[in-house]
Amino acid sequence: MTPRAAVEVSNYDVETDVLVVGYGAAGASAAFEAALAGARVLIIDRAGGPGGASAMSGGEIYLGGGTPIQLACGYDDTPAAMAAFLKAALGAGADAAKIDEYSAGSVEHFHWLVDRGVPFKPTLWDAPSWVPPTDDGLMWLGENSWPFTESATPAPRGHRPTANDFGGRLLMQCLTEAAESAGATTLFDTAATTLIIAEDGAVIGVVAKRYGREITIRARRAVVLTTGGFVDNDAMLAAHAPQLLGHTKVSAGTDDGSGIRMGQALGAQVRHMSAGQVGMSLIPGLAARGMVVNAVGRRFINEDTYPGRIGQAALFRQNMGGSWAGDDTAIWVIVDEEGFEDVPENQRWGVQPTHVAETPSELEQLTGLPTGSLVDAIRRYNESATAGIDLDHHKSPRWLRPLTPPLAAIDVKLGIRPPAEAGDRRGTGASVFTLGGLHTDLDGHVLDLDGHRIPGLFAAGRAANGLHGTGYISGTSLGDGTFFGRRAGTAAARNA
Fold it and tell me: Can you spell out the DSSP letters for 262-273?
């Protein structure tokens, strides 16, 4: 990863104005805007084609501020309300300046996506879900759950391309067609290994490997790194985010942190490298209709919240201060027959009860939870539900109902299988990816340890830290990556 001095490069195999390294949603967006600004653009990717983790995703894009889809569904949102939610939901260290910029430009960004061919249907999916089984264009992502109802007027902001289930492939199809129609060219099976720098420290190209042979690529204006995070690099996880080790990785297998390390080798600043998203293998609709308890039989969060918060709370916060000792991903969803049957079979993703019992005491014994723990948790939950107010975790009254036997316990470690996947998913119960990355300004310039721009170097997507602090909401990766990818592409094309 050590930068190569330009004086050591005798000739360049390829030359371009702007070089985009990585061809996911952020890379496609950067390439489109750079080409639109008049630059000659080359995109390289280590894989055999475009897409990466973006194409494998649900396709949700976090947008608000009063988009046409929101208005059609009866929600008059504002940029201020959107920003207030994101500042609360994205956790400690969230980038307030980027959130304000993103929220203010969200409606414009929606129209930009539509102009690139991304379709959105003006209908709402009105229930907790990872990915709705419909083509509804709008969904809730925790905005209507506590504590966020205290800081901003709730409005759904999860915008979904018009596709049943996972929409990432459709999104990437639209973005790649846009980038290449604008004039961007591609070079696949090409892995960037190090940056090339001029005598003044400016980045002027990359060294790459293609079919085992080293090639050099000259970038006359700038290099834009959109190489993804580092969840596939166990050495980096061990150094920065050890709690993410050992879990299922959410990636295309190429999130090795190479772009981040190339930037660090030049003295780039990184932020929030310990932060990660944690998706627990539970069905949000079942969790909302019941209880979620940990290895000692305690509720620890409101079950109607964005499901990623359940995973983060389980993995990152339960053991803080030694409050309990045990397996931090040993999570049980407790639900009764009415709640289970209320979720249609096609929305359960193959989940079946692990244990069924006629009494809380019997269920407690079957799960092996500490004596009295689950019995007490169900008793207290039912008392709250009967009173219509959850004093412990503030679950919305909409989902608060006493649990009546027979009762079921679902072990999240048995996994879930989305419709597009097959095979055994048993593991730790958690699926993770990283949130930390290169520190960038509002136009995607990579910043050094003193906060100064590194000449000729830009980043976007998960290679950059973007909006996030320690928290995460679905759609903020694709939203952040496409929005600030656009900004990076434009700035790169104008870079002298």
Answer: HHHTTTB-EE-T
End-to-end CA distance of the chain: 25
- How is 203-263 classified by DSSP, letter by letter? EEEEEEEETTEEEEEEEEEEEEE----STT-HHHHHHH-GGGTTSEE-SSS----HHHHHH
CB 473 within 8 A of CB 61: no
Tens-level pLDDT at each residue, the chain (496 residues):
899 999 999 999 999 999 999 999 999 999 999 999 999 999 999 999 999 999 999 999 999 999 999 999 999 999 999 999 999 999 999 999 999 999 999 999 999 999 999 999 999 999 999 989 899 999 999 999 999 999 889 999 999 999 887 899 999 999 999 999 999 999 999 999 999 999 999 999 999 999 999 999 999 999 999 999 999 999 999 999 999 999 999 999 999 999 999 999 999 999 999 999 999 999 999 999 999 999 999 999 999 999 999 999 999 876 433 344 445 678 999 999 999 999 999 889 889 999 999 999 999 999 999 999 999 999 999 999 999 999 999 999 999 999 999 999 999 998 776 665 555 555 788 999 999 999 999 999 999 999 999 999 999 999 999 999 999 999 999 999 999 999 999 999 999 8
DSSP string for residues in 26-50: HHHHHHHHHHHTT--EEEE-SSSSS
Euclidean distance between CA atoms 250 and 433, whole angstroms: 6
Q: Global pTM?
A: 0.95
Between strands 14-21 and 213-225, the pairing is parallel
